[in-house]
TrEMBL record:
Residues 14-59 form the Major facilitator superfamily associated domain. Pfam families: MFS_1_like. SUPFAM superfamilies: MFS general substrate transporter (SSF103473). The keyword Isomerase does not apply. It is a multi-pass membrane protein. The chain crosses the membrane at residues 12-36, 42-60. Keywords: Membrane, Transmembrane, Transmembrane helix. It is found in: Membrane. The keyword Membrane applies. This is MFS transporter.
Length: 61
């Protein structure tokens, strides 16, 4: 019984971690291109930088 309760608590923490991770990405990523634009990046440079994250995820996972 104790092991089942521990597993449930771990699942809650794991779910909370995933929620906070993707919620923070959802808040942060839409403004990242504007941040780069304000710092003088061209449209091509912004596209390359933003494309690197999914490319690295694809290559390294």
């Amino acid at each position: 019984m104790l092991n089942t309760n521990k597993t449930g608590i771990q699942a809650v923490f794991f779910s909370l971690f995933y929620f906070l991770n993707f919620a923070s990405l959802g808040v942060f990523l839409p403004y990242l291109a504007l941040f780069f634009k304000e710092n003088g990046f061209s449209g091509l440079q912004i596209g390359i930088v933003l494309a690197l994250v999914p490319l690295c995820k694809f290559v390294f996972t």
